User: Which sequence fits this backbone?
């Protein structure tokens, strides 16, 4: 398979990448692949194969996909995905699954389309990024074993002790939303992962992201919030506010962020900008 390169995160999916690699070798003659142990290694591999590669395939979770996307946005290179993360939100939203035969058929067809990405203080995000409660959860989650059950345990434990963050908008049109929030999310697609839809109406090709402001809610509201999130029914109410934006600036009283599920420290003020149709995705 010419002009295709596979980038494997060996730490994703319980480090079970050997099964994928064995299947790939059986189905593709002498595949070009790289087993990545760092973001820097991934970037160097892409640089070395940039001229002779049309499709870069990311095997991993949203963080792995984002690190590959960062090197090929605003180019004619195409991103393909074999999901191998704990949440796989972006893969779910772009119709990739764990069927290698189906992926190889897509690669041979070479059909693609352009989608949006966005930046948080010039750091790329492709799916959902946020601060506040979920930023803290990701920080604590990275200290445990990956997996949806562990994520839920960490979320519940964190919720009871978490103090709301203070958000102060610099952009004039949004100053009325200054206040304290449980979390602030920026959604290019609809879900965090594991079919948890934080922004059910978000679109990855409309030139906008959904800014989602969630106030800390009482324990009695928790079942309703969870039910609505997992059934695509979250909407504006007393605790949740949706603001579609192309760019926005604000200050926030924490440096703890997650970008596509990966923990980051980011200082205020925060500048969010949408990059319309900046990434080519295999379809």
Assistant:
């Amino acid at each position: 398979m010419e002009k295709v390169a596979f980038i494997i995160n060996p730490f994703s999916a319980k480090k079970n990448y050997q099964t994928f690699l064995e299947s790939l070798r059986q189905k593709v003659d002498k595949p070009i692949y790289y087993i990545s142990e760092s973001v820097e290694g991934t970037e160097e591999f892409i640089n070395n194969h940039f001229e002779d590669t049309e499709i870069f395939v990311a095997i991993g979770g949203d963080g792995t996909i984002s690190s590959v996307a960062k090197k090929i946005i605003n180019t004619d290179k195409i991103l393909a995905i074999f999901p191998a993360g704990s949440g796989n939100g972006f893969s779910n939203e772009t119709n990739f699954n764990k069927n290698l035969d189906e992926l190889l058929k897509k690669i041979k067809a070479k059909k693609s389309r352009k989608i949006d990405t966005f930046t948080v203080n010039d750091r790329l995000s492709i799916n959902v990024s946020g601060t506040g409660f979920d930023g803290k959860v990701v920080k604590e989650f990275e200290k445990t074993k990956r997996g949806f059950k562990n994520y839920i345990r960490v979320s519940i434990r964190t919720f009871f002790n978490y103090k709301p963050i203070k958000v102060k908008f610099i952009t004039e049109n949004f100053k009325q939303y200054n206040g304290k929030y449980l979390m602030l999310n920026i959604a290019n697609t609809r879900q965090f992962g594991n079919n948890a839809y934080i922004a059910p109406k978000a679109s990855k090709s409309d030139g906008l992201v959904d800014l989602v402001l969630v106030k800390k809610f009482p324990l009695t509201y928790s079942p309703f919030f969870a039910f609505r999130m997992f059934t695509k029914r979250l909407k504006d109410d007393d605790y949740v506010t949706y603001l579609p934006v192309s760019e926005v600036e604000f200050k926030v009283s924490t440096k703890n962020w997650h970008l596509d599920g990966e923990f980051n420290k980011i200082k205020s003020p925060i500048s969010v900008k949408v990059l319309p149709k900046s990434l080519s995705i295999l379809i």
